[in-house]
Design a protein that fits this description.
Layout: E1 6-19, E2 22-35, E3 39-43, H1 50-55, E4 65-70, E5 73-74, H2 80-88, E6 90-93, H3 105-115, H4 120-133, H5 149-160, E7 167-171, H6 179-196, E8 199-204, H7 207-213, E9 216-221, E10 224-230, H8 231-236, H9 241-247, H10 257-260, E11 272-279, H11 288-296, E12 301-310, E13 313-323, H12 327-336, E14 340-347
Parallel strand pairs: 3-8, 3-9, 6-7, 7-8
Antiparallel strand pairs: 1-2, 1-4, 4-5, 9-10, 11-13, 11-14, 12-13
Helix pairs in contact: 3-4, 3-5, 5-6
Length: 348
């Protein structure tokens, strides 16, 4: 851990790949601290640069500019034994498991320890402990072809933990799994983070994964970090259009098509104002719309919404329309009661 409390630090990181006739930029000016002991998600669309960024943490890619440090060690400058030591402190879980088909569950988990030259007795004890941790004890002698997708990923997690790393990297580890299995794997990762104090850095294109497990999140677009912070704060106050686009798929806050198609940017001639209300913090479960109607007599039309739980904290988003002549009064009332409001447009 560095003096800033970060397990991983990206400092003005850039990466360019050679291409016929020149270079193509994958990352540019990326600066990000990954807090020690956190679960930090990096979310972005395909081609945004998130996989390239992740691979720099264990030296599989080298930055063209800037530095990547793990526990205060500059990964980009490390060579030979120094790089091998860093890699032993960084475990990695892959999207497609990367298990050896000719080796059993036990032998796949044991592989990193064999490479490290771990004595056989210590190796056996460590592997058995890991297999039990991921709840695969009865399957230790099975081969990958005999396992389900979720079981294969559990083997991958156990293997990634074999050398007792301080950082665990997850490369789209749940994207090949069905929803139920995804939740099981995410719960396992959350348990590992809590029990071992392990820093987990995961990349994903699914905001639901970030919501369910990450304490911190960074949004990457076009090779740049466009927004970063604690997950709850990003959900409550998304600033960048890319973040809002990702959030719309998991918070139930997409406007119905019949409203979105009629939305006007100007209030002129409109009869209704469309706003987003964010329920967060201590007042997330207060019945504020009922109070608004009761106290001020202002009718509210609910267009869409959902109540979620991020970590252990409730969070809700509602899209509503209000009469134009009383919309400002209604927003002021809601904000006095510690709710966030945002005008999305106006409709006839």
């Amino acid at each position: 851990m560095t003096a800033t409390g970060a397990a991983i630090t990206f400092d003005q990181v850039g990466k360019a790949f050679p291409k016929r006739g020149g270079l193509v930029t994958a990352l540019e000016g990326v600066s990000l601290d990954v807090p020690a002991g956190s679960v930090t998600g990096i979310i972005g669309r395909s081609g945004a640069g998130k996989s390239t960024l992740l691979r720099m943490v264990n030296g599989l890619e080298q930055p063209t500019s800037g530095t990547v440090t793990v526990g205060g060690q500059d990964v980009g400058r490390a060579r030979g034994g120094d790089l091998r030591r860093i890699r032993r402190e960084v475990g990695m879980i892959f999207q497609h498991f990367n298990l050896l088909s000719s080796r059993t569950v036990f032998d796949n988990v044991a592989l990193p320890l064999e490479i490290a030259g771990t004595p056989r007795d210590a190796l056996r004890a460590r592997v058995n402990d890991l297999i039990e941790r991921v709840e695969l004890g009865p399957l230790a002698d099975r081969y990958p072809a005999e396992l389900s997708g979720g079981q294969k990923q559990r083997v991958g997690i156990a293997r990634a933990l074999a050398t007792q790393p301080k950082v665990l990297l997850s490369d789209e580890a749940t994207s090949a799994l069905d929803p139920e299995t995804t939740q099981t794997v995410l719960r396992l990762l959350a348990d590992i983070n809590r029990d071992l104090g392990l820093t987990i850095l995961l990349i994903t294109h699914e905001m639901a994964v970030v919501r369910d497990i990450a304490s911190h999140v960074a949004v990457i677009e076009g090779g740049r970090i466009v927004e970063a912070g604690e997950t709850y704060d990003i959900f409550a106050r998304p600033q960048h259009p890319t973040t809002r686009s990702f959030l719309s798929g998991v918070t139930g806050v997409t406007l119905p098509a019949f409203i979105a198609g009629r939305l006007l940017p100007s209030a002129q001639d409109a009869t209704q104002e469309v706003i987003r209300i964010t329920f967060a913090g201590a007042h997330a479960t207060d019945p504020m719309l009922a109070r608004l109607t009761s106290d001020l007599g202002i009718p509210v039309n609910i267009l869409a919404g959902a109540v979620e739980e991020i970590g252990t904290r409730p969070f809700g988003n509602l899209l509503v329309s209000l009469p134009m002549d009383r919309a400002a009064e209604a927003r002021a009332y809601l904000e006095r009661h510690h709710l966030l409001t945002e005008v999305l447009g106006h409709v006839l």
